[in-house]
Specification:
heterodimer, A: 365 residues, alpha+beta, Rossmann fold, OB fold (Dihydrolipoamide Acetyltransferase, E2P), 2 domains, six-stranded mixed sheet, 25% helix, B: 308 residues, mainly alpha, MetI-like fold, two-stranded antiparallel ribbon, two-stranded antiparallel sheet, globular
Amino acid sequence: MTDTRTTAAHGGAIGLHGIKKWFGTFQAVDNVSLEIRSNEFFTLLGPSGCGKTTLLRMIAGFELPTEGQVLLDGVDISRLLPNQRPVNTVFQNYALFPHLTVSENIGFGLKMLGKPKSEVDSVVKDMLKLVHLDGRGNNPVTQLSGGQQQRVALARALAPRPKVLLLDEPLSALDLKLRKSMQMELKRLQLETGITFVFVTHDQEEALTMSDRIAVMSTGTVRQVGSPWDIYDRPAERFVADFIGETNFLEADVISVSGERARVRLSSGAEINATYPEGITPKGKVTIVVRPEHARLGSPGSGMLEGVLDDIVYLGTDNHFHVKVDGGSTFIVRQQNAKSGPCGFSEQDRVGIAINDDVAQILRD
Amino acid sequence: MTVSPQEVSEQRQKKEIRDRWFLSAPALILIVSASVGPLVIVLLYSFLAPGNYGDVKWEFSTEGWFNVLFSRDIFDDTVSLADAHFLIFWRSVKLAFATTVFCLIFGFPTAYFIATRAPHNRSLWLFLITIPFWTNMLIRTFAIQEVIRSEGIINTLLLKIGLISAPIQMMFTDFAIMLGMTYVFLPLMVLPLYASLEKLDFRLIEAGYDLYASRFGVLWRIVIPLVKPGIIAGSILVFVPALSSYVVPRVLGGGKNLMVGNLIELQFGQGRNWPLGAALSVTLVIIVLFAMLYYVRNASKSGGSAHG
């Protein structure tokens, strides 16, 4: 195992097969099956308590699944101890060893693997460069800033060249600006090292920015797996649509289905095309979602829906128009402020809402 | 010059600390009157001549100190090194050191166990650890005697089972003294160790395993360096009283396995040589000071200073 670990030019692929985890009478993970591909930046996204961290800890080996298997490159590692898995973790609060220097922290894993001192030293040097901490090697880690500690934690986990790097909400303790730059940094490190990253977060924006694929989790189950685009534009169910960004839910009736599109009739009587998730054939009454930026505001009668402009929220780059649609529900339209000055609408105006082509998505439930 | 609010609050804090120095007065008075004072008297006595029936004669003499290192033959006045004193000091250091090591070996897992319990259960375990303090040390020492003496519980049991044909001599041995001292001083090791372990971030242990450390590696390279302050505190708390132990060697060591405490008592009692007793006492204090100095310096040299 040691040999494959040091010579691995590619990241490992993780297979989770029917994973269940109980803590006493509480079920943290319920029958999760996932395939995480080699070299990909994979994100487990969900609110706190959805089981994403538990899942990560089972890949690391800190928890054993009650049922199911964890595979690494096709080999069952479910019962291996954490120190037997070529998988390293970046912990939420970094968990740096406070009694060791920056270099000693980074070299810890290699030293424990019994690597000769010369090799440890040269890898530590490379790692310091990789995370822009050249010259800080002899500093005690307790004297570093949060962002620097974060980078030491990354370097420490990357130094033994794991097949898979697990990251447990590593950016949550940083301030916004630092978080943004660390997001870019993480993406760069993932591309440079070719190691598979499994990233846990509750921040949807973070997930959309960095990931190749995202698994959205809720109450111990995976609700949807897909690219950031899939997750955002083609949510399969209400939870996913609601958790990622702002969204409008509309009731509609299915008229006909042809290929990947369905024709639906809105409450106003207007008809639009909508995509639908794999594995269902939409019929009868359905819920469709339309993102606020996928609709335009216009004069009454110009669009598919009509209503009264209830509220205008100015956000600098955008305006949010809250429209009380005839029939009761509220529809939010988001429009970029391409010009300076007033937006041309005022509250209590009667307005029409036009929905762009090919943006509506039918939900599974 | 402008003064930042932070500086103002710092100055205020300093002033408050200054204003409250008198709160430490009771402790200071107690330390000066009950510890430093008697020590000065002992030091003074060590340079006086022995009285005929105990006590001291008020004339300067180095005979007490001379007798610590040398013994004068009462018949022909020849001088030789005081082997018995060296032997007793050496045995005391050896036994106190061994006791400290045993307390660490037994105390560490105990403290670790308590520190890893659910928070609301820990106070119960700590409470159990302190139960022996409720009983007089002398009585506890006699209880040990009851366990290990030739007609005691262990020997009776082993004889009944037939594992041995004659009782094992455990009383009046160095083993008995060490066992007794380990038992008596164990809580003094467990409590500071627990205080350190309780503050330990157990995620660091996970990080250690994650980075391929074995169980031993995690213990040796992560846990022990981080709880070093507790190990030092516990070791001092055990070593110092063990070195000057009196009751345990008296009861369990019988007359022949003396420790320094007994030797000193002998000089003030039957020996009627108070200056020698005083000089021996001062020697003991010096040994303790050097041992502590050596220990603390060594411990702080090899890291651990960044923590706590």
